[in-house]
Write a structure and sequence with these properties.
Two copies of one chain form a homodimer.
Chain A (H helix, E strand, L loop, with lengths): L1 H28 L6 H19 L2 H11 L6 H18 L3 H24 L2 H22 L7 H7 L5 H24 L14 H15 L8 E3 L5 E3 L5 E5 L6 H20 L15 H15 L3 H14 L1 H4 L4 H8 L16 H17 L7 H13 L25 H20 L3 H6 L4 H12 L7 H9 L6 H15 L2
Parallel strand pairs in A: 1-3
Antiparallel strand pairs in A: 2-3
Chain lengths: 495, 495
C-alpha cells in the first residue's frame, strides 16, 4: 500500500516535471516572441512546485519507512533508496533558491539568444554572472568531497568525480593528439560537396526517413525545427526531437538528426510502466550521450551505413551528388579539421572542444575565472588546443546554450559518452553476428534490440560505471575509442 | 504589502493554469498518438495543484483581511472581492472532486474523438454518463437559486440566470423564425462556388493575411491547425488560434479564422500588467463570444469588408473566382439554409443549433434526459426546429467537443454573444464616424481601438449585463440583431 503511495507521489512529480518540459520545448520551438515575458515565470513556478513535491515531509516519511521495509522486491527497494538520496540532496535547497535558479535560467536563456544573435557578449555577461553566483551558492549548499565541481558533476554523472574525468582525459589527450598530428600531416579529403545548395524540404524528408530507419517511433514522438537541436521527453510515449536545416550545409541536418535520434531511442526504450520512478529514468548523462554518439559516429559515420543510404541520398540530390562516389562521400564527412563550432566538429577534434569547456568550467567554479574574463580565456584555449583564432563571440564563447541554462558540470559527459559509445559498440560487434553486414543492408534492428536489452532497460538505479563493467567486462577507458579511430582514420588518410 | 502577496499568489495560480492550457493546446495540435496515455494524468495533476492554490487557507486569510482593508484602490478592492467569491465557490469542491472531473474530461475527450471518427456513439456514452453524474454532483455541491442549471451557467456568465436566457430567447425565437420564413420563401443565392477546389497552402496564407489585417499581433500569438478551431491564451503576450482548412470548402477556413481572430484580439487586448488578476481576465463567455461574432458576422460577412478583400481573394484563386462578381460572392456566403453542423451554419439558423443544445442541456441537468436517450432527443429537435433528418451521430450529437470537455452551461453564451455583438456594433456605428467606409478601405483599426476601449480593457470585475448597459445605454435585447438581420437579408433575398 505505501509503495503504491510512493509511486503515486512520484507520478505526480513526473507530471509536473513533464509539464515544465513542455513549456521549455514550446519556448524553443513555437512560442511567439512576446510569450517570453511570462514563460520564465511559468517554468519557475512549476520548478518550485516540483521541488515542494520532491521534498514533501509526508512523502519523505513514506520513503523512510519503505527504506527499511523488507517485503519490497529488489527493484522496489532500489527505487526507494535512490529516491531517498534524491530527497536528501534536494532538501538542502529551499524552494526560494530553486525558483531563483529557474528564473535566472529563463532570463539567461533569453539574454544568450539575443547576445548570440547580435554578437554582443555584454548582453549575456550580467546574466551569466548571476548564474555563476547561484552556482557557487549551489556548490556550497550541496556540499562535496574533493573538488567543488564534484557537487555539479554529481547531478549528471553520479559516482563520477573530477579526478575520474581527469584520469581518463589525461590518458586520452596525448593519444588523440598523436593521431591528429598524423592526420594533419596527410592530405585532407575534399568536403566541398557538403556546402552546395540542398533544398530544405528535401533535407527534412530525408532526415525523417533516417529516423524511421533507426527505429524511432513517430507515433510516440515528432521532429520540429529549433535553433539548437535537442531531445526532450514527456514520458516514454512522447519523446520529441528537434533539428535544424541549413541549405548550404547538408552535414548539419544529417548528423544532428541521427544524434538526437540516438537520444530519443533511449528515452522511447525506457520502461514506460515505471513512469516517474528511478527505474524508468536514464542512468546518467554520459550513458545518454553514449547512445546518441554510438548512432551518430559508430553507425552514422561508418561506411556500411552509407552503403545502404548513399544511393537514396544521391537520388534526392542528383544535381549535387550524382557525380560523387560513395568512398569520396565517406571520406568527406570524415574530414578532420580544427574548427570553431563544437556541434559541427568532426569526431576527433570534437573532444578538444569538450576539454576546453571542462577546463574553463573548473576554473569558473574554482573562482579563478570570472564571466568578465571568460571570452578572453575561451579564445586563448582555442588558440592553444586547436590552433585557431576566434573571430567573434557568436562563434566562440556564445555558441552553446548550456551555460545559459545554468548547466555547469555537463560538458565532460559528451566526451565520456563518446568513449562509452566506442566501448559499447566494440562489445556489440563481438556479440551480434554480422552486425556490419546488417547495417549495410539497412537493418539496424539487431543493434537496437541489443541496446534495448543491454542499456535502455537499465534505469537510474545503477551508475554508468556499473553498466559499462556489466556490459563490456571492464571500466571505461579510451582504448576502444583509440582503436576505432586509428583503424578508421588510417584507412581514410592512408597512413 | 499584503496586496502584493495576493497578486503574487494569483500570478502563481495563473502560471499553473497557463501551463495546463499549454498541455491542452499541444494535445490538440502537435501531440503524437502515444503521448495521450500520460497527458490526461499531467493535466489532471495540474488541475489539482491549481485547485489547492486557489483554496489555500493562508491565501484565503490574506483575501479576507484585504476585503476589509480601506486603503485599497477601487480596482484593488474589486479584484479582492471577486477573488473572495471565487474562493467561496471553489472551496465547496474537494481536490479529489476536481481531479476526478479533470480525469473524466480527458477521458471523455479521447472517447469523443474516437466515437466521432467511427460514428459510434456507444464509445462516448459511458464517458458522458460519468461526466453527467459528476455534473449533477457539481450542481448540488455548488448550490443554486431557482433552476439547478444556474449553478453551471454561473461559471460562464456570472449574474445571468436560466430565466434571463429564456426571456431573451422567447422574445427572439418567433421574430427570427418569421424572418427565416420570409427567406425560405425567396430564391436562395447559389453558393456552389465555395465547394470548388481551393489549395490548402494558399488558403492558409490568405487566412494569415486576414488575421494581420484585423490587427492580430503575430509576435504575441500564432496559428496552427486543429480538428476543431479554438483560441487559447497563456497570458496576453501569447494568445494562439487554430483553424482547419478544407480543400473543398473555402468558407470553413475564412470565417473560422476571423471568428477565432476576434476572440484572440480580446485576449491580446486584456491588460497584460494584470496577469492572473480578475481585472486581467475576460468579463464572461458571452462577452468573449460577442467579440468573435462581431468580427465574424458584423464585419466579416459584410459587404464593405469584402469590397476591400475580394479582389485579393480572386487573385489568389483566379481559376475558381475570376468569373464570380463581388455581389454574387457576398450573397453566396450569406446564404441561409437549415444544416446539420453548427460551426458551418449561417448566422441565422445558427441560433436554432444553440437553442437545441440549450434545451437539451436543461433536460440533462434536470434529469429528464439521460446520455442513453440523448441521440434520439437530438434528432427529434433537429426535425422540429430545422426540419432536417440527422443521418449519423457524427453529424449530430457527436459534432461538438464541448460536452466531452464537461462544458455544460456554455452553449447559450454563443447566441447571447451574437446578440451582444449586434448591439455593440450598432453602437460602434453610431460612435465611429465613417466606420463602414473605413472597413471598405481595409482599415479596421478604428473599430479595434473602440473595442479596446469599450470592451477589452474591462476585466472580470464587472458583468456582461453592466458592460452592455454602460456601452450601449440599455440591457441586452434581440432588437439590434433583428434590425441588422432584417436590413441585410431583405437586401440579399429581395423582399
Amino acid at each position: 500500500m505505501s509503495y503504491q503511495a510512493y509511486k503515486n507521489h512520484l507520478k505526480q512529480l513526473a507530471d509536473v516535471n513533464y509539464a515544465s518540459a513542455l513549456l521549455q520545448w514550446d519556448q524553443e520551438v513555437y512560442m511567439p516572441e512576446k510569450g517570453g515575458s511570462y514563460r520564465a515565470s511559468q517554468i519557475s513556478t512549476l520548478s518550485g512546485i516540483a521541488h515542494q513535491l520532491a521534498t514533501d515531509p509526508a512523502f519523505e516519511k513514506i520513503v523512510a519507512d519503505l527504506a527499511t521495509d523488507n517485503s519490497l522486491s529488489e527493484q522496489e527497494k532500489s527505487n526507494v533508496l535512490r529516491t531517498k538520496r534524491d530527497i536528501e540532496k534536494r532538501k538542502k535547497f529551499t524552494r526560494e533558491f530553486v525558483e531563483e535558479m529557474s528564473h535566472a535560467v529563463s532570463e539567461g536563456f533569453v539574454a544568450w539568444q539575443e547576445a548570440k544573435q547580435k554578437n554582443d557578449y555584454s548582453i549575456f555577461q550580467p546574466k551569466l554572472e548571476k548564474l555563476l553566483e547561484l552556482k557557487h551558492r549551489e556548490v556550497e549548499i550541496a556540499g562535496y568531497e574533493g573538488h567543488p565541481y564534484n557537487a555539479l558533476l554529481d547531478d549528471y554523472e553520479p559516482g563520477t568525480t573530477v579526478d575520474d574525468v581527469k584520469k581518463v582525459f589525461d590518458d586520452f589527450k596525448p593519444k588523440l593528439k598523436a593521431l591528429m598530428d598524423k592526420i594533419f600531416a596527410a592530405t585532407p579529403p575534399d568536403d566541398a560537396l557538403f556546402y552546395r545548395h540542398y533544398d530544405k524540404d528535401k533535407q527534412w524528408a530525408f532526415g525523417i526517413d533516417l529516423l524511421k530507419q533507426m527505429g524511432y517511433d513517430f507515433s510516440a514522438g515528432r521532429q520540429d525545427v529549433s535553433a539548437h537541436p535537442f531531445t526532450i521527453s514527456f514520458g516514454a510515449g512522447d519523446v520529441r526531437v528537434t533539428t535544424r536545416v541549413n541549405e548550404n550545409d547538408l552535414a548539419e541536418m544529417i548528423w544532428s538528426c541521427i544524434h538526437e535520434g540516438g537520444h530519443a531511442l533511449y528515452e522511447q526504450g525506457l520502461p514506460a510502466a515505471d513512469y516517474g520512478l528511478p527505474s524508468g529514468e536514464a542512468v546518467s548523462l554520459a550513458i545518454h550521450e553514449s547512445q546518441s554518439r554510438l548512432w551518430e559516429n559508430n553507425v552514422g559515420r561508418s561506411l556500411p551505413f552509407w552503403q545502404h543510404n548513399y544511393a537514396k541520398l544521391q537520388s534526392v540530390f542528383p544535381e549535387s551528388l550524382a557525380a560523387v562516389g560513395l568512398h569520396d562521400f565517406y571520406k568527406a564527412f570524415n574530414r578532420v579539421q580544427p574548427s570553431l563550432v563544437r556541434t559541427s566538429a568532426d569526431e576527433l577534434t570534437y573532444h578538444f572542444h569538450i576539454i576546453i569547456r571542462f577546463e574553463l568550467e573548473l576554473e569558473l567554479i574554482e573562482g579563478k575565472l570570472t564571466a568578465a574574463n571568460l571570452p578572453a580565456a575561451w579564445n586563448a584555449k582555442y588558440k592553444e588546443y586547436l590552433g585557431i583564432d576566434v573571430p567573434t563571440d557568436t562563434q566562440g564563447v556564445l555558441q552553446d546554450v548550456h551555460w545559459s541554462h545554468g548547466s555547469f558540470g555537463y560538458f565532460s559527459t559528451y566526451s565520456l559518452g563518446s568513449l562509452y559509445a566506442a566501448q559499447l559498440f566494440a562489445q556489440a560487434q563481438k556479440e551480434i553476428p554480422g552486425l556490419e553486414d546488417s547495417i549495410a543492408a539497412g537493418n539496424t534492428a539487431p543493434l537496437l534490440l541489443w541496446l534495448r536489452e543491454k542499456v535502455h532497460t537499465k534505469g537510474r538505479n545503477t551508475t554508468s560505471r556499473l553498466v559499462c563493467e556489466e556490459v563490456t567486462g571492464q571500466p571505461l577507458n579510451a582504448d576502444f575509442f583509440m582503436a576505432y579511430a586509428e583503424k578508421k582514420y588510417s584507412g581514410i588518410y592512408e597512413f
